[in-house]
Amino acid sequence: MIRPPETYIVPAGSVMVPARIARLLMVKILDSYRSRIRGVDPELDTILTALDLAGRRWAAQRADRGTPVAATAEPVEPSNEWFTTTQAADVLGITSRAVRKALAEKKLTGFHRGGQWWIAREELAHYRATRDHHEETP
């Protein structure tokens, strides 16, 4: 059942976006524009990152309902912790150049502010789990 548009507006005037819709927005529309508009507005970068994270979590939960995967990601507590490319490289055990390449190839999501990339802890965990899974798959 489709809800009326007014039900998605929260008291502060913001719009609540269900994770499934966030995923569709990112995959079908916003990902193609994201690199071109990155850095235009820091709040926009942050919101696009939040939409992407919510959509990825929704997609991961749906994937969890299917055939079990041999290796599972370590559980990660939600956090407001953000990492630079150098810090992310240390966490992932790769070079900062590899982190920037993953960002450019959209295998890793972050936002650019003040001449520096920032990547959420949850995104690092997702990237690590995806990378580990692909390394184990023949």
TrEMBL record:
Domain of life: Bacteria
Domain Helix-turn-helix residues, every copy: 82-130
Record-given protein name: Excisionase family DNA binding protein
Native source species: Microcella frigidaquae
